[in-house]
Amino acid sequence: MDPNPMFAGSNRRAGHAEVPSCATGGVSLRGMTLVEVLVASILLGVGVAGLIFASTLGLRNQQRSGQRIAALYLAEGKLAEIEVVGPRIWSLAEPSRGTELRGDASYEWSIRIEPMTEGELFDVKVQVGWSSSGGSGRVELETLLNDYEAAAERGSGQRNLESPLEPNLPAAG
């Protein structure tokens, strides 16, 4: 029997002092040990480090995506310019290489235009590469463009320019 009637019926364990049940309303006031605090701190640290790594990776991927989109816009713009001017005239009058700065990246573009054997078709390839503090990359667009207007201008001496719907007849003479 317990010599102290105040601790009667309490559940004693070695190394832990308990407050009598009547004083705490039946709840033990045992605290956390140092090992438990260290384990909880380590788990919390690992979780926070994982979140920081994930957010950093997400920001880096967002920056790379933005640079790739800017390079695609530049390549599409060059293709549109070639389509408006015509591949034959572009290859004679415009540069085939250049550099543009957009944001913190430097974009280098190059254009290759090769005539095809069939009709007035041209194989047009636009390459855009970039380099920045966040990395580097390259995009490439390739398409076939026709140049019927240039062919019409070369053969204008043989065409009836007054009415394109009338057949081209030899001049009476």
Polypeptide structure, described:
This protein has helices spanning 21-24, 34-85, 87-93, 148-154, and strands at residues 97-102, 105-115, 121-132, 135-146. The chain is of the alpha+beta class. It has a domain at 38-152: Pantoate--beta-alanine Ligase, Chain: A,domain 2, CATH 3.30.1300. A 4-stranded antiparallel β-sheet has the order 1-2-3-4. The longest helix is centred in the middle third of the chain and has 52 residues, at 34-85. It is rod-shaped. The model is unreliable at 157-171 (pLDDT under 50).
What's the arrangement of secondary structure elements?
Elements: H1 21-24, H2 34-85, H3 87-93, E1 97-102, E2 105-115, E3 121-132, E4 135-146, H4 148-154
Antiparallel strand pairs: 1-2, 2-3, 3-4
Please give a handful of descriptors for the protein shown:
rod-shaped; 173 residues; 4-stranded antiparallel beta sheet; Pantoate--beta-alanine Ligase, Chain: A,domain 2; alpha+beta; disordered C terminus; 40% helix
What would you say about this model in short?
This protein has helices spanning 21-24, 34-85, 87-93, 148-154, and strands spanning 97-102, 105-115, 121-132, 135-146. The protein is an alpha+beta fold and 173 residues long. Strand 1 (97-102) and strand 2 form a beta hairpin.
Count of individual beta strands = 4
Strand content: 15-25%
CATH topology of the domain at 38-152: Pantoate--beta-alanine Ligase, Chain: A,domain 2
What's the alpha carbon Rg, rounded to whole Å?
A: 39 Å
Please describe the biggest sheet, giving its number of strands, its sense, and whether it closes into a barrel.
Answer: 4 strands, antiparallel
Low-confidence stretches: 157-171
How are the strands of the biggest sheet laid out side by side?
1-2-3-4
* Computed structural class: alpha+beta
Number of helices in the DSSP assignment:
4
> What series of H and E elements makes up the topology?
HHHEEEEH
User: What is the general shape?
Assistant: rod-shaped
